[in-house]
Amino acid sequence: AFDVLVIGGGPAGASAAIYAARKGIRTGVAAERFGGQVLDTMAIENFISVPETEGPKLARALEEHVRQYEVDIMNLQRAVKLVPAAAKGGLHEVRFESGAALKARTVIIATGARYRALGVPGEQEYRTKGVAYCPHCDGPLFKGKRVAVIGGGNSGVEAAIDLAGVVAHVTLLTHGEALRADAVLQRKLHSLPNITVLLNAPIAEVLGDGQKVNGLVYKDRLGGEAHRIELEGVFVQIGLLPNTEWLKGSVELTERGEIITDAHGATTVPGVFAAGDATTVPYKQIVIAVGEGAKASLGAFDHLIRSSAP
Ligand code: FAD
Which stretches make up the FAD/NAD(P)-binding domain (predicted)? Predict the structure, then answer.
């Protein structure tokens, strides 16, 4: 059995594995896709001390760093169930889609999250070519340009306020008849001169010239006509879904499916820890996931030295 079994090979999982392996304990990482979300992006400019890198390059660097240690890396393994230890100090079991099962004294869950996609024509085609999901990450790439934000909840309105300080103009579109964001955010939104809000305006298509985004089409839900807006970027803010469906009934999750963790990365099941975008820790970013992975790993190590027989 492993001392520490990490599920997920993104920034949080890689960091957790390195911290565990450096303690000289038996460490494994099982991931569906080693590298995680960073594989889906090109420019990364906010991973502190690395002024500029690309997603696939950072993913490779994460894996190379993990491979410097004695860590069992099991790629292309999708976890489908966590069976917590029946008794205190017992072994937890993780079952995989392949039929395999692994046992471990502690488990660190770092299965991340995925942005909800619009599912309209042009969205996939122009991903990383004008279609973006993270204003903290990609906002500065649109400096002085025109962008749209799709989504009328807190994250959409926050993104519009944030981007308005960087870009030339923001059009906020929601399919709803009103914004759902907190009143204080809506007041701030309406006080900014370079934001236009369009209600009842579901996006129908992202347009581009084959290389980059150059506009979008939305439907007027009341009138029925289609309208075109010329712009350079589309930020999709319709939800971030944690990859935690497989944990239902084991560790405690919030209503939104985020794993509840304490300051040490511990979940509600003793010996099971969690880190990164899959958890309640706010502000989903690489630098935060890396720190949280280290923290959960030290938490797991602390748990091991306190629960092992003398
Ligand atoms: P993830 O990166 O999501 O990794 C999760 C890991 O778990 C993956 O290996 C996945 O395959 C695996 N997994 C999932 N489910 C299972 C399962 N059931 N069984 C086994 N394995 C599983 N952040 C920044 O700081 N700067 C940026 O510039 C930036 N740009 C971004 C651009 C895009 C397009 C996207 C989508 C995100 C961007 N982010 C950026 C956010 C950043 O990528 C995430 O915050 C970070 O990757 C979270 O790390 P994580 O390890 O928690 O999860």
Answer: 2-293
The answer to whether the annotation marks 107 as part of a ligand binding site is no
Pocket lining: 112 vs ligand 1, CB cutoff 6 Å: yes
- The CA distance from 277 to 215, in Å, is 31
Task: Tell me whether residue 152 is annotated as binding.
Answer: yes
Mutating to test ligand 1, I would choose from 54, 134, 238 the residue with most ligand atoms within 8 A of its C-beta, which is 134
pTM of the model as a whole: 0.94
173 annotated among ligand-binding-site residues: no
Phi, psi of 236, rounded to the nearest 5 degrees: -95, 120
- Give the C-alpha separation, 292 to 155, whole Å: 22
Distance 92 CA to ligand 1 centre (A): 24
* 233 Cβ inside 6 Å of ligand 1: no
Query: How far is residue 250's CA from residue 268's CA, in Å, rounded to a whole number?
Result: 9
d(CA 182, CA 91): 44
